[in-house]
Design brief:
Layout: H1 63-89, H2 94-103, H3 108-119, E1 122-125, E2 129-138, E3 149-158, E4 163-166, E5 169-170, E6 181-189, E7 196-201
Antiparallel strand pairs: 1-4, 2-3, 3-6, 4-5, 6-7
Length: 212
Amino acid sequence: MRHPKLSRIVATAAVLAGLTMTAACGGNDGPEPLPPVTSSPSSPSTSTSPAPTTPAWQSKYTKEQIAEYEAALDRWSTYEQRSEPIWAAGKATPAAEALFKKFFLNAIGQYQTLQTYEQVEVKTEGTPKIYWSKATSIGDPKKAGTRGMSTVIQQCVDYRTMHGTQHGKPTEPAKKFERPVLREINMIKVGNVTWRIAAVDDRKGKPCDSTP
């Protein structure tokens, strides 16, 4: 997966805004706290918490599938957290290559992109703000077999919290990334191996709402 593109491509001394494989920031702030519950002297003070709600999209999946989705999402989030310093440094080091191999089915593309960034002095700092995440497809672990299973994660992300530079000078993001956009992440799991990143796509820059 590549960073959202800036106003020009690297080949023309332009920069990609930064690989969206960085730490997953929190979404919206939670609701305002409820006011304290008052009671008469004759009755004990009580308080209630709203029951957690299950997103509607989860209704078509089993508990086992939701557990796999959550594991895949956690794996992706871990990659974003651990890769952010790599893209901020913009150096194709052995440690960076090792990290890509740990999280990707095919790490060559990621490492080659990082090598290109190093050559043209591109760096990307910060993390995208994630408003929400959901699965659009979850494989059935009971039917995984030898080919394994896949989970497709869709997120609404805002790249405006990320900042790119080239030769130490700020770069401007492409117009399509000046608003929250949809990002799709394809995760693959074979056998008992942990989830791996197969592909990430945000190229269309399709806008999304901050609430699913």
